[in-house]
Amino acid sequence: MRSSIRSSGSFVSVPPSEKLDNGLRNAFKMEFKTVPSRERATGPLELETEFSTEWALVDIGAVSPSSISPESISRDCELVKDIVLKHPDEVRRLVEAFQPGRPKELIDLGRAYGIAEGIGLTEEQSRSKGGGLLGLIVVVAAALLASGCHSCGSGHVKPDPKPNQTSGGDDGSNGGDDE
Asked: Rounded mean pLDDT of 172-176?
């Protein structure tokens, strides 16, 4: 398995649903790049646009934190749990559809979407049941980024105060009165 990715393309926002909150709309990005056309072996060089089917980018900085809905994320956790327990083979087939080394002609995006739709694991299906997978992915990505960066710190990383603690050290136990 690879441990790094070198990219020569541009990551462009491709919202997985037209009904996304504007604060989440630009979080999911796919890589697009310009490559020589494979259709013509002779004649003038022609270019085409290709997109990666192996990776995508979750742009946490493009998210408005107020767009994160705890209720939606909680519902997504329930939905995803039920789906992966009920359809483990289909979930694996969905991930398998995007594995590296597969010839482009074997990557059937319609089939991959059919698997996701068939088990109820699309953004639209999640939204129709009170969820919205993108918000869940953003929170998980932020947590993973924080976890990964924790070991990279050089001592300059300072944790945020505890949630109930103000910058003056009040932990809320005295009702917020510093006197």
From this structure: 43
